[in-house]
Amino acid sequence: MYIAVAQTNPTVGDLDGNLMKALHLAEDAAEEEADIIVYPAHVLTGVPTGGLGDSDAFLADAYKHLEHFAVQTPIAAILTLGTRCEEADDLVLPEIFVVADGEITSLGYPVLGDETPIVEVNDLDIAVLAEEHFAADSELAGVDLFVELASDSVPEVMLAPEEEQPLNRMRSVAQTCHAYAAYANLCGASDSMVFAGHSCIFAPDGTCIIHDDLSENAVSVFDTDLPPAPADAASTEINYTAETWEALVVGTHDYVEKNGFRDVVVGLSGGIDSALVATIAVEALGVEHVHGILMPSGFSSEGSLRDANELATTLGIQTSEIPIDEAVELFHKLLAQDCGGSVEGLAAENLQARIRAVYLMTIANANGWLVLNTGNKSEAAMGFSTLYGDTVGALAPIGNLYKTEVYELAKWRVQRGESIPYECLTKPPSAELYEGALDSDRLPDYETLDTILRAHIENDLGLEQIVALGFDEDLVAEVLSTVAKSEYKRRAEPPALQVCGVDLGEDRDWPITCAWLDNS
After folding, report:
1. The pTM is what?
2. 48 preceded by a cis bond (ω within 30 of 0)
């Protein structure tokens, strides 16, 4: 029997477009003589649907598209669709469907933890799992094929224990059950979510016979009656740095294009963050769709301008240089009286960042472009940014990377081709908002800071636990207090691509108004 496994990239809410993608994949599979095609979860609706997925009108429209699919598909199919479940107080849950000969048959709701559904197709017993419902080995005894319909994101796969990563789990299931095991996952991105791809098929002896990459739209067909042949380069080892890079590129591309845009603008400061974002954007969208703006002030060093221009030249980005000093001087005059006679200190520093934000947003609006934010996770955690200044942008590609991870990824990228100037990797980081400014004036060194932040944010450790790791108590207390007090800034930041670790915007869910501090 010929089985097809699809890996595809739906767009949330685009029922017509997603239906056509699914049908094209079924037609491709039929041309390769497949008897049945297995799709990733949510192939018709996309995910995450958020509140849209609770709309009765949307649910009804989605089911109509499932009916259209059933009539038009040239071969049988297994897929999921969110529907209201009476057994769960009418909650919307993913329901598994088998489509064959124009008929739609429900296999139930996997998230309820019921017995694993087994469907017979052409005398082949197929066990179907979806949405992280794992079956006991006893349930799968005697099945010929195990399929999992997934919508796993990059962090879910990369941070899972080794034995629970899809590729290793599928191999184990195949060997344990002496059956073929197929994993169909989404690829591409939606909002800040980036899907992990890596759809795969394992033979009963654990041989990987098909393995797609993170971003590949593909349909793969295999014959259960033929001896398995190992897939070309079917390594199941994950290169985490390479995966992170590809996820950032895919996430940036899909966010921009799925929201109806083609071009982006990036403020080029000559620093490592903007250099990395610009490099990602060029790979994601093409150099002709990336625009750089240099906005020097009297505090900008000659080296920063040189590095920004070198980056642009190397990448091939067209740039404009628009100094901010004249605008800063005018704002000082206009605001002096209401600022106690003059604009000084932190207010004067932040004014520069906010003027740059106005430049970027105005240029973007005038041209129909999106602004890419260049902030990182260390800065977001510590509130080391200017509200309505550095926080400007529609998307923060590296917003979930700690500063040390930014450097690691940039060095990895440089090893693979000329891109980021060497000086960006070696000079002390600075926002250059006052004479001689360095990030280290107001933050611990990033190696120390990121280690504390990881312990607190990723591992949920408190003051005493982090101090026990060997850190100064006053330093840890200051870092944890700053993180807690900076939540209001994070709520104003653009979505950050979720590629590793805890997402500060969605996962952490820390209150803005909060009087508790970890002083234990």
Report:
1. 0.94
2. yes
SS3 content of the chain, % helix, strand, coil (to 5): 40, 20, 40
**Nearest-5° Cα angle at 298, 297 to 299:** 90
Determine the Cα–Cα distance for residues 490 and 508; give it in Å rounded to an integer. Answer: 11
Residue linked to tokens 């209001």: 488
pLDDT tens column, 283-330: 999 999 999 999 999 999 999 999 999 999 999 999 999 999 999 999
Pure H helices in 80-180: 137-140, 154-158, 166-177
CB 96 within 8 A of CB 130: yes
Nearest to 400 by CA among 289, 310, 505, 483: 505
* Tokens of residue 26, six digits: 């079924």
Angle (CA) 513-515-520 rounded to 5° is: 140
Q: How many residues does the chain have?
A: 520
> In this predicted model, what pLDDT tens digit does every residue of 438-483 receive, in sequence order?
999 999 999 999 999 999 999 999 999 999 999 999 999 999 999 9
Write out pLDDT tens, residues 81-113.
Answer: 999 999 899 999 999 999 999 999 999 988 787
